């Protein structure tokens, strides 16, 4: 079916269905986004697609990514058309551009970890879109409200998974000297905070991975993000920080990190986490 010149079938924006876990209220698009969407929906499909394919954010006709997510979702009751396919490609391109690069600028080096993060994030988002085409997927509502934050949270989740899978197979000690390796010390985060030589004995070393994985999810994620090199906070608005990605204050992040390290120490000393 040729979509050129056709008007978009949606005339009135439907409200989002997902509730904010903290307030119990339904998520709402920002007024600026709703205004932009209403203006777009008055155009032909071809005009909508052409605007959505603009990559330059400084262009006055650039379409916010929140709007692009909504437009892709609004095709859920239709058979795939060139209109949907072009919108989908534009959306996936934006996501790919915002993920950690998987290769060097000269395209001569491939970064394995970043490649796995890209693949995992894209697969997860595509799964959400596929689910949304069969039944309303409320998790995508947040993407219509805060695309950047939603993508950051997804990226952090995938980074956490990749890090755990990667480090599961790493040795804990040097094969010749028997000394604990630097990545284990950093992973535990216990060299400076505790200054306890007992923690570096063989029995403790064998329990380090379990200590990390047994932390409460929020604390484990903070520890893992620290390992990935994310700063807790930054004055640079373009830097992805732990506090921004998890939507927590700097003080809360530091407190949870401290509590996580203390819990790890307790695990290593007693063999369990309360």
Describe the model.
By secondary structure, the chain is mostly helical. Helices cover 55% and strands 0% of the residues. The protein contains 13 helices and no strands. The longest helix has 22 residues. The protein is globular. The termini are far apart. About 9% of the residues have low confidence.
Task: Put the structure in a nutshell.
The chain is mainly α and 274 residues long. The protein has helices spanning 31-41, 45-52, 65-73, 82-98, 112-132, 141-145, 147-168, 182-188, 191-194, 202-213, 217-227, 242-245, 250-270.
Task: Give Rg in angstroms.
Answer: 23 Å
Distance between the termini: 60 Å
pLDDT averaged over residues? 79
Portion of residues in beta strands equals: under 5%
Number of distinct beta strands: 0
Q: What fraction, in percent, of the residue positions are helical?
A: 55-70%
Number of helices: 13
Decide which structural class fits the backbone.
mainly alpha
Largest sheet: none
* Order of secondary-structure elements: HHHHHHHHHHHHH
